[in-house]
Amino acid sequence: xxxxxxxxxxxxxxxxxxxxxxxxxxxxxxxxxxxxxxxxxxxxxxxxxxxxxxxxxxxxxxxxxxxxxxxxxxxxxxxxxxxxxxxxxxxxxxxxxxxxxxxxxxxxxxxxxxxxxxxxxxxxxxxxxxxxxxxxxxxxxxxxxxxxxxxxxxxxxxxxxxxxxxxxxxxx
Amino acid sequence: xxxxxxxxxxxxxxxxxxxxxxxxxxxxxxxxxxxxxxxxxxxxxxxxxxxxxxxxxxxxxxxxxxxxxxxxxxxxxxxxxxxxxxxxxxxxxxxxxxxxxxxxxxxxxxxxxxxxxxxxxxxxxxxxxxxxxxxxxxxxxxxxxxxxxxxxxxxxxxxxxxxxxxxxxxxxxxxxxxxxxxxxxxxxxxxxxxxxxxxxxxxxxxxxxxxxxxxxxxxxxxxxxxxxxxxxxxxxxxxxxxxxxxxxxxxxxxxxxxxxxxxxxxxxxxxxxxxxxxxxxxxxxxxxxxxxxxxxxxxxxxxxxx
Lengths: 172, 306
Fold this sequence. Notes:
The complex is a heterodimer.
Chain A: H1 15-29, H2 42-53, H3 60-74, H4 80-94, H5 96-99, H6 104-128, H7 140-147, H8 149-156
Helix pairs in contact in A: 1-2, 2-4, 3-4, 4-6, 6-7
Chain B: H1 15-36, H2 40-70, H3 74-112, E1 122-130, E2 138-141, E3 154-156, E4 161-168, E5 173-177, E6 184-189, E7 195-200, E8 207-213, E9 223-226, E10 238-246, E11 253-260, E12 269-273, H4 283-294
Antiparallel strand pairs in B: 1-2, 1-12, 2-5, 3-4, 3-12, 4-5, 6-7, 6-9, 7-8, 8-11, 9-10, 10-11
């Protein structure tokens, strides 16, 4: 959506699409990953996407509930992801107007900061709970997630696009 | 006149207020969970909600395995069958000897009046996935309280101990692996019976025997098995073998590292052992029982008690 780019008008989003995308992200998170260092957190990524695109539909409540589900599914401290996702959703909503004006690279840079920030919140919680620092590979997951940002954006907006029909009466 | 915006513009509380609300809610939950363990019921409910998704996530893997299994050739199967038959023969011999030895041991135990050891039930389980938590080493099994597993049960594979079941939900359960930083196993050196406690080494994937005196009789290559004195692990299960011993005169304790014997981070299947060992009550409980009996309320003693 830049000032000098064509702006396509999207169809209004359906709540079902958002719910389905969150279910898919949770499913991807629960996949038996062989190596977890580069496994992106799909729930955080999807959450950030919808917070940027639909800040009035997806907010902190959704983020908190999803965080609790992720916490319970992974058997970590209850509230760790809930806190991280709430902070992520807040920042994404606050920056949503700004982020959409950037091209893909600018958006990815913003996402990188947001996702690393969420990871930092989770790290802070665990350090406060008495765990030791597991190494810098902790910050590789958000990098992988950021690399997926354009693909996720393209994929999740498919249901909202309409076919481009050019005819003589409607040249746009 | 009071000035309020028209309902069209009402968007609920300010974002910062919402953030503060949810953050404090999370922090309260964190404290409840980490300090007081009050959140276990909520966790069970949530894990039940996540269960269908976890099952669905398993489907593609199961499907791929099914397809791969369908296309295994007959010669491969025959080869595998031969191998398995040979292994069965080899282990049958061992099993016969084990039976004889077990009978002899129980007879001897009766002779000296020691408590008999009971067979433990075991339940095969599949490892669904490993927890996405870089801070701890946990795996999720596909057996829960509905199948009869309980928190505290030891989990083994075909070689030795891999961990302990720390949380049992309705259909799934969490196993803390041996190498987790907070996991401890009471062990014994096979060579000389020296008792020790093996702690998980975290990211290194090793075990550490802490609080071993600097002059303790322990060497490289010593095999460690469970000692069974905690009543959780049955005695004699292989745990690890010692790979490094550092003795430094300036420290009170030796630094002993051991490599787990079992495939702690490998393998898809595990065996959950029940912990229905008959144990005498803990000293505190026993004292309370005696006091109650003295007060003139004769309490029926447990069959396993005293």
